[in-house]
Specification:
heterodimer, A: mainly beta, Immunoglobulin-like, 1 helix, 8 strands, disordered N terminus, B: mainly beta, four-stranded mixed beta sheet, four-stranded antiparallel beta sheet, 9 strands
Chain lengths: ~130, ~120
């Protein structure tokens, strides 16, 4: 064999994540891992999808959801070890606030997808005039 | 998300071994390591003797006033090492980081052909 296993004592990522109570939900086992956050101006969705180019990635925005789907391709050759996930994936994010769909931006860098969804400006409340009957 | 994820300069990031594929093609061995969030500047690759060591840190930053609602990943340090045998050419290892995947190519050396050892079998 040419390549040795890099030591048995090294932690494996999933095992480590399972130690933390916050990662015990079933969600954490879904692929890809997502971070969801917001501030006053926008909602941010970030996902770790290494090896996926813009062509293999599909983002769909509906009224209340953002859907991230795509495919991780498999390299050709004789495998000695295969740990990287491969195949199709899809995740859906429920958006907590209405977003300005025309100004959504998505950026892919170093295997990190960042989607910035600006919050839609709330329409000012309109007064309804009550007329005499 | 752990506290230190907001400070990428923090020394003690959680350490992980990256998910790795190892495969062989006619010209040599190819290693693919998932290193999402690791930029070229934050990646260190060392070949020392027969040991190939890879380490890299993610540098996730946040927008001002950003509040996490759900978190499934944070800043980590990826560490792993591989032992190369002498049928590969350690001098001409090449590496290429693209889209968060590190591809390492280890060509087979042409001068040494491994000798096959015949296993003798003695029937009972």
């Amino acid at each position: 064999m040419v390549i040795d296993f890099g030591g048995f004592g090294r932690p494996y990522r999933l095992i480590n994540e399972l130690w933390k109570p916050s990662f015990l939900s079933q969600q954490s086992l879904a692929y890809p891992p997502l971070n969801l956050s917001e501030n006053a101006s926008a909602i941010y969705v970030r996902a770790e999808i290494p090896g996926v180019g813009p062509d293999d990635l599909d983002l769909v925005l509906t009224e209340k959801n953002l859907i991230v789907k795509g495919e991780r391709r498999v390299e050709k050759g004789r495998y000695f070890r295969q740990e990287r996930p491969a195949g199709g994936f899809q995740r859906m994010v429920a958006l907590s606030a209405p977003v300005d769909a025309d100004n959504v931006r998505a950026l892919l860098r170093d295997g990190l997808l960042t989607v910035v969804l600006p919050k839609a400006q709330p329409k000012s409340p309109r007064k309804i005039l009550v007329q005499h009957g | 998300m752990p506290e230190d994820s907001k400070r990428p300069d923090e020394k003690n990031l959680p350490r992980f071994r990256p998910a790795t594929d190892i495969l062989e093609r006619a010209d040599g061995f190819y290693l693919y390591l998932d290193l999402p969030g690791v930029s070229r500047e934050n990646l260190v690759l060392d070949v020392k003797d027969a040991e190939l060591m890879v380490s890299g840190r993610t540098d996730y930053r946040f927008e001002p006033e950003e509040r996490l609602l759900e978190s499934e990943f944070g800043n980590v340090e990826y560490v792993c090492s591989f032992t190369l045998s002498d049928i590969v050419d350690a001098e001409s290892v090449t590496a290429n980081l693209r889209n968060g995947v590190l591809e390492i190519f280890i060509p087979k050396t042409s001068k040494t052909i491994p000798r096959r050892i015949q296993v003798e079998y003695q029937g009972e």
